[in-house]
Automatic annotation (TrEMBL):
<keyword id="KW-0723">Serine/threonine-protein kinase</keyword>
<dbReference type="GO" id="GO:0035556">
    <property type="term" value="P:intracellular signal transduction"/>
</dbReference>
<keyword id="KW-0547">Nucleotide-binding</keyword>
<dbReference type="GO" id="GO:0004674">
    <property type="term" value="F:protein serine/threonine kinase activity"/>
</dbReference>
<feature type="binding site">
    <location>
        <position position="63"/>
    </location>
    <ligand>
        <name>ATP</name>
    </ligand>
</feature>
<feature type="region of interest" description="Disordered">
    <location>
        <begin position="1"/>
        <end position="29"/>
    </location>
</feature>
<keyword id="KW-0808">Transferase</keyword>
<dbReference type="GO" id="GO:0048638">
    <property type="term" value="P:regulation of developmental growth"/>
</dbReference>
<dbReference type="GO" id="GO:1901701">
    <property type="term" value="P:cellular response to oxygen-containing compound"/>
</dbReference>
<keyword id="KW-0067">ATP-binding</keyword>
<comment type="similarity">
    <text>Belongs to the protein kinase superfamily. AGC Ser/Thr protein kinase family. PDPK1 subfamily.</text>
</comment>
<feature type="domain" description="Protein kinase">
    <location>
        <begin position="34"/>
        <end position="305"/>
    </location>
</feature>
<dbReference type="GO" id="GO:0005524">
    <property type="term" value="F:ATP binding"/>
</dbReference>
<keyword id="KW-0418">Kinase</keyword>
<keyword id="KW-0963">Cytoplasm</keyword>
<protein>
    <recommendedName>
        <fullName>3-phosphoinositide-dependent protein kinase 1</fullName>
        <ecNumber>2.7.11.1</ecNumber>
    </recommendedName>
</protein>
<dbReference type="GO" id="GO:0005737">
    <property type="term" value="C:cytoplasm"/>
</dbReference>
């Protein structure tokens, strides 16, 4: 049993500082604490289930990873990174991220107990309506920007930001998920240790072809502004319906990215176009916001965000997607 849960309180009649009260650490959860429902997501070595906590009937999402598969594919580091980052983000109190409530394991699997995002991924919402109107695009871009400000403050680069990893909660606010490709930046200015770069080279690349930044393709180094590139791609996709770089093969998409080879369709909102052109810049440090010291004030101040109150986004009713 956990000794801290059974330790008796210390008597303290002297001038000694009082002993700490016994900590009531919650017992490690097990799969039997939950009723597992249907599959709501599938990754390359994980499956996400909707689940119910049997103690309070709360709906949750549980990501289940197969240990053998992780070992076979040498993904131990990625799983550990994901858990570490989810813990950092969850404990920071930042809004707009799924929360990690518990982790546990059995003989064959690892379990991550996460916030259940009732309205699923952002991608099918974009696809259902074709494209977002300006009010919608602006609102969701603003929530993503605030989330990226929190990640920057926490020295975390997501590195795989895309509309599949942006979930929507019961009130249609965003919850960013999937930190399996993320990076904790230990020293200012940069970037990735050689370990990470060589691993990246062997695995060909980190992230998803359409949203990956040029520096992740060439130098295999990421900074917080790699997520700003993805933000540019996502704003383009919300406004027009499709991501800016698209092609039949991953190789051709990479070539388009490296050559900044993309176009705006006729009628594309010129203010949105101006912002996207300032984010989709090959040199990471020349992207809008890249040299901002705290947060991304230079992006907040862009005309595209005119009328947005960034401080109260979480309490606003999101514009309807239709
Ligand atoms: N799909 C993947 N993760 C999810 C989550 N936390 N909530 C809802 N759908 C998901």
């Amino acid at each position: 049993a956990c000794p801290s849960r059974t330790a008796a309180p210390q008597m303290n009649g002297t001038s000694q500082p009082p002993q700490q009260q016994p900590q009531h650490t919650p017992a490690k959860k097990t799969p039997r604490d939950f009723i597992f429902g249907k599959v709501i997501g599938e990754g390359s070595f994980s499956t996400v289930y909707i689940a119910k906590d049997i103690h309070n009937r709360k709906e949750l999402a549980i990501k289940v990873c197969d240990k053998r598969h992780i070992l076979r594919e040498h993904k131990e580091e990625y799983i550990k990174r994901e858990k570490d980052v989810l813990n950092i983000v969850s404990n920071s109190g930042a809004p707009f991220f799924v929360k990690l409530f518990a982790t546990f394991q059995d003989a064959t699997r690892l379990y991550f107990v996460l916030t259940y995002a009732k309205h699923g991924e952002l991608l099918p919402h974009i696809n259902r309506v074709g494209s977002f109107d300006m009010a919608c695009s602006r609102f969701y871009a603003a929530e993503i920007l605030v989330a990226l400000e929190h990640l920057k403050r926490l020295n975390i680069v997501h590195r795989d930001l895309k509309p599949e990893n942006i979930l929507l909660d019961e009130n249609m606010h965003i919850l960013i998920t999937d930190f399996g490709s993320s990076k904790i930046m230990t020293n200012e200015n940069d970037t990735n240790d050689e370990d990470d770069r060589s691993r990246a080279r062997k695995n060909s690349f980190v992230g998803t072809a359409q949203y990956v930044s040029p520096e992740l393709l060439t130098a295999k180094t990421a900074s917080t502004s790699s997520d700003l590139w993805a933000l540019g791609c996502i704003i383009y996709q919300m406004v027009s319906g499709l991501p800016p770089f698209r092609s039949g093969s991953e190789f051709l998409i990479f070539k388009q990215i490296m050559n900044l080879n993309y176009e705006f369709p006729d009628g594309f909102c010129p203010i949105a176009k101006d912002l996207i052109e300032k984010l989709l810049v090959l040199e990471p440090y020349q992207r809008l916001g890249a040299t901002d010291e705290v947060g991304y004030p230079s992006i907040r101040q862009h005309n595209f965000f005119q009328g947005i109150d960034f401080e109260t986004l979480q309490n606003q009713t999101p514009p309807l997607i239709y």
